[in-house]
Amino acid sequence: MILVIAEQQSGTLNRSSWETIAAAQQAGGPVKVAVLGAATGAAAGELAAAAVTEVLRVEAPALSPYTLDGFVSALGQVVAAEQPESVWLPHTYQTRDFAPALAVHLGRALVTDCIGTKSDGARRLFVRPVFQGRLLADVAVDGPALATFQIGAIRADSLVRGAAPAPVRTVAVSVDAGAIRQAPEAPFREAKQAVDLTQAERIVAVGRGIKEAEKVVLAQQLAAAIGADIGASRPICDAGWLPMDRQIGSSGQTVAPKLYLALGISGAIQHLVGMKGARTIVAINKDPEAPIFEVADYGVVGDLFEIVPAVIKELKG
Amino acid sequence: MKIAVCLKQVPSRDWQPRVNEQKTWVRDQDATFELNEPDAYALEEGLRLKEKHGGEVVVCSVGPARVSQALREALARGADRAIHVEDDALAHADAFAVAEALASAMRDEAFDLVLTGLQSDDQGSAQTGVMLASLLGIASATIIMEVDAQGPGLRVKRELEGGWFQWVTLPMPALLTIQSGINQLRYATLKGIMAAKKKEIRKVAPPSGLASRQQIVGLYVPEKRKQTQMIGGSPAEAAKALVAALRDEARVIS
């Protein structure tokens, strides 16, 4: 049995939970889904729509708000009671926080950021990107394992719904609030997050290939010439060459413009998840093997400092 | 404050990874290596905390002899001393085994604060830090954008998804995984490089019987998901073809 841990926030399930359930269904065999919190009734009711063996409500007052210690304690008890052969989770910031601790607690392997599974005949292999997405690895595990699945890697609409709602059961766990070491405060947004790239029709995005802060102006000129907003991959914002609210990717904004023009962006997974929904993707990069070309509709291999001025000239001519 | 920073030496970002004959890892013998960039942010944060609160910064790493290069680089940037769990077999070990090796070498040091980068540029598991905290029995928090160590414990700013953040308070000793971009990196000065030569790199052996719980059994270049139209020629020719394609074929610019 695969046990999927769904993720919810104030009663709302995130989409990646459905993706992970779909992945577990496709693996074959029975699937159970657990949802954790102080009040899980609504989320469990929703999850029961999926064709799964059972939905488990793992409820305790100390499970809201989320804390690493609380979740590891509760899930340790659930896994001990249910004995799943595998525990699957979406690869979110929350599971990145607690899943490694849960793996140590259980003494099991954890395979993170998987994009799918396959079989080599005898056993299940987990497929995950390595080297910033330039290579894929098939990973074999010893014994029961935990695995997290990359957001967007499995289509949520491939989820199989049940003819009738799946049974919902409450699993008794005891979580000692006094033993939780993390004291979280309410989540907040930075006021300076002023730029909304999610609605942009065209985006020119810059990456490491731009080399220095002074060269960013070249991307801005191209953006002006085609009526695009400017965006960037994480390293550019980390370096302070563009403000953080221009960042596209898993820790920044997720965009889906008509045109996405990537300049000197290699295409690490963390960036791709934020822009692969764009309708037309253009990549200009000196490295012909950069992963960005895998998602690009049009690719130009070469020196962006020569190509971009030529494109601007062509647009004006 | 006694601070440890765990770092990894990884193949350089500029090196195009080539798969070995067994298809289980890249051709290490062809690679150049560098300090894992996310760990450089953890190191910088450690150095800043030491400057503010006093104490020492100890850099810790696991891997073959070449790893001492990365440790030396960290010493040149300002770390005080280094611990190197030297072992060839751990070069491509999984995060669990690496965390076990680190825990065994670090336990007796009783650090107040342990920092790691968010994830490594090679395997990218994003697990070692949290696993190490669990093995050491200390509290942890991940993807940290700000560290406030004024009080008796730590108050840290966690990055959540989609532009959200959250402050979390936790007691020391603690482990934090540091988000890249939390600070501006410093580079080694000539003086730092000279000073680093005299600093201690303590080599320790890993505990016996360490084994990875997962193995890479196939490594390959991902299949293309999209039909990419590659545009060649001189910059002027490529620009002309690209603009024409975007105007007339994709119809995304006017």
Oligomer: heterodimer
**Low-pLDDT regions of chain A:** none
Strand content of chain B: 25-35%
For the record, give the distance between the C-alpha atoms at the N and C termini of chain B, rounded to a whole number.
60 Å
According to DSSP, the number of beta strands of chain A is 19
Spatially, the strands of the biggest sheet of chain B line up as 9-8-7-10-6-1-4-5-11
Structural class call of chain B reads: alpha/beta
**CATH homologous superfamily identity of the largest domain in chain B:** HUPs
**Given this structure, which CATH class of the largest domain in chain B is correct?**
Alpha Beta
Across the major sheet of chain A, the strand order is 7-11-6-1-4-5-12
- Mean pLDDT reading of chain B: 95
How many helices of chain A does DSSP assign? 9
What pair of chains forms the biggest interface? A-B, 94 and 79 residues
The chain-level mean pLDDT of chain A equals 93
Q: What is the CATH architecture descriptor of the largest domain in chain B?
A: 3-Layer(aba) Sandwich
Distance between the termini of chain A: 63 Å
Overall number of structural domains of chain B: 2
How is the main sheet of chain B built? 9 strands, mixed
CATH topology of the largest domain in chain B: Rossmann fold
> Which regions of chain B have little confidence, pLDDT < 50, spanning 5+ residues?
none
CATH C-level category of the largest domain in chain A: Alpha Beta
